[in-house]
Amino acid sequence: MASNLKPTPVERKLRARDPLTVGEVSARSGIAVSALHFYESKGLIASTRSAGNQRRYARGILRRLAVIRVAQRMGVPLGVIAQALEQLPKGKAPTVADWRRLSAAWRDDLDARIQTLTMLRDQLDGCIGCGCLSLRACPLRNPQDIMATQGPGAHVGG
Ligand code: FES
């Protein structure tokens, strides 16, 4: 009797194309439902609605979410991620070529941020044990040497 309830290969194939509920997406991606709603509110992902007004997601959403999470781990701002994903067809999974292109672009950003953070760390080394927090002398307070552009004379905050 139970074997009659087993889906046939054709039924299984059709179900594999069914859109996913928000709970299924959450379970498969490991991302909380609240985060999925947040991503949707920011335009990073999109859903359709079922007859009962429930969210439904194309299966390509899972690769799209993988791209979002990896980019977030690299510190790519959500706005930049959204812009990048806008270039992809709606509801389609990012292809291998899409991911290669996006990850190459984000690597350059990551290099730039590493360079900035390394410089900040080195400057912080000079501050440790100093404590002056001087607008004139401390490179962390005056990173672009703003005082130099304001000409001679007294300045606030020194
Ligand atoms: S606190 Fe003195 S140089 Fe930064």
From TrEMBL:
Pfam families: MerR (PF00376), MerR-DNA-bind (PF09278). CDD domains: HTH_SoxR. InterPro entries: DNA-bd_dom_put_sf, MerR-type_HTH_dom, MerR_fam, Redox-sen_tscrpt-act_SoxR, Tscrpt_reg_MerR_DNA-bd. The keyword Transcription regulation applies. Residues 19-87 form the HTH merR-type domain. It comes from the Bacteria. SMART domains: HTH_MERR. The keyword Cell membrane does not apply. Keywords: 2Fe-2S, DNA-binding, Iron, Iron-sulfur, Metal-binding, Transcription, Transcription regulation. Gene3D superfamilies: 1.10.1660.10. PANTHER family: REDOX-CYCLING DRUG-SENSING TRANSCRIPTIONAL ACTIVATOR SOXR (PTHR30204), REDOX-SENSITIVE TRANSCRIPTIONAL ACTIVATOR SOXR (PTHR30204:SF0). This is Redox-sensitive transcriptional activator SoxR.
